[in-house]
Amino acid sequence: MANGTATPAPPPSLTLPRKGEGSGWRRASSPLSRRAVLAGAAALFLAGRGAARAAVPSRIVCAGSDVTETVVALAGIEAVKGVDTTSQTPAAVRALPSIGYLRQISVEGVLSLRPDLLISNRDLGPQPAVEQLRGTGLRVELVEGDLDGEGIAAKVRRIGALIGRQAEAEALAQTVSRKMTALAERLKGVATRPTIVFVRSADGGVLLAAGKLDLVNAAFALAGGVNPLDFPGFKPVSREVLAASPPDFIVTGADVIAKAGGAQAFLQAGGLEQAFAGKPDRLAAVDMTTLFSFGPSTADEIERLARRIHPERFAP
Predict the structure, then answer these.
(1) How many C-beta atoms surround the C-beta of residue 199 within 10 A?
(2) What is the mean pLDDT of the chain?
(3) What distance in Å separates the CA atoms of residue 215 and residue 223, rounded to the nearest whole number?
(4) Which domains are assigned to the chain?
(5) Assuming Cys at both sites, which of 97, 136, 197, 293 could form a disulfide with 247, CB separation 3.0 to 4.6 Å?
(6) Which of 146, 176, 219, 222 minimizes the C-alpha distance to 70?
């Protein structure tokens, strides 16, 4: 105590008496019993263990479907306190508090959840919001990986290291790698690569299709197909364009088909009813979020697509 003000003791987890430095005990006003000394040492040890456990985040906010799926797979949904709107897998995360869209997150929404870690893929934004969050002292970690099996595995391992789940991450990463390697082996040397068009929506009878998007092109390539559209981003595609050069397959969500009024109405909207006549297998309803997120479940969704467009490679 100096000038009537008590000096706080340093945190026990950061400062422990070294051998021969028991002066704090010797200066006590009365001798301490062996039991008291042991009790104090035990308290310091337990406090240190508690601090070590606290270093592993227990209140995690996730952004990006790939990140959210991975964190839940490794640590359980109870560790996740909030997600962005692109996070849809597993279904239980949809009931969690939202921090807004991945590229337009809400700073207030994040901070209101009192997280000790925000993990996102590289699309987190806007940048001023990210910097503002970091300025509050919140730990913000961005993860990324190549758009293939090894890239997914690398993301899984990185996330596992961030949340203290290395063993679980290694097991999951190896599972993903094995699946993607096995799929690549099945598709090795395919003679033809069917054209596949991804339709995100069919609102008002207009098909909104994907052009040159890395996630789409990579997923189709891994499944043994190719995206024939080369315009940037998403654009409405006219009936005339699709009818003149119909793709081998259309990939979309089951909800998109249902909203269009069923498969026949969907094909009519795109002028594809004639090109797809008698070929019901050419319209493939997929889990769009899973297929293009490049999270752990993407390997399974890519295999399902591969089975659709290359059934000969999966014959018994």
Answers:
(1) 25
(2) 86
(3) 12
(4) 60-186 (3.40.50.1980), 196-314 (3.40.50.1980)
(5) 197
(6) 176
Q: Distance (Å, rounded) from C-alpha 73 to C-alpha 69?
A: 6
99: Cα separation from own chain's centroid: 15
Distance of alpha carbon 130 from alpha carbon 103, whole angstroms: 10
Burial class (CB in 10 A: 0-12, 13-18, 19+), 121: buried
Confidence band, pLDDT 50/70/90 cuts, at residue 124:
very high
Q: Pseudo-torsion of CA 288, 292, 297, 299, nearest 10°?
A: 120
Distance CA 166, CA 156 (A): 9
- Distance (Å) of CA 22 to CA 12, 45, 282: 14, 16, 78
* pTM of the predicted model as reported, rounded to 2 decimal places: 0.80
Judge whether 160 and 137 are in contact, CB under 8 Å. Answer: no
The predicted pLDDT at position 176 comes to 98
Q: Among the listed ranges 4-13, 117-126, 180-189, 235-244, which one has the minimum average pLDDT value? A: 4-13
